[in-house]
Amino acid sequence: DGGITQSPKYLFRKEGQNVTLSCEQNLNHDAMYWYRQDPGQGLRLIYYSQIVNDFQKGDIAEGYSVSREKKESFPLTVTSAQKNPTAFYLCASSIVAGNTIYFGEGSWLTVV
Amino acid sequence: DAKTTQPNSMESNEEEPVHLPCNHSTISGTDYIHWYRQLPSQGPEYVIHGLTSNVNNRMASLAIAEDRKSSTLILHRATLRDAAVYYCILRRDNNAGNMLTFGGGTRLMVKP
Question: Does A33 lie at the interface with B, CB-CB under 8 angstroms?
Answer without folding.
Answer: yes
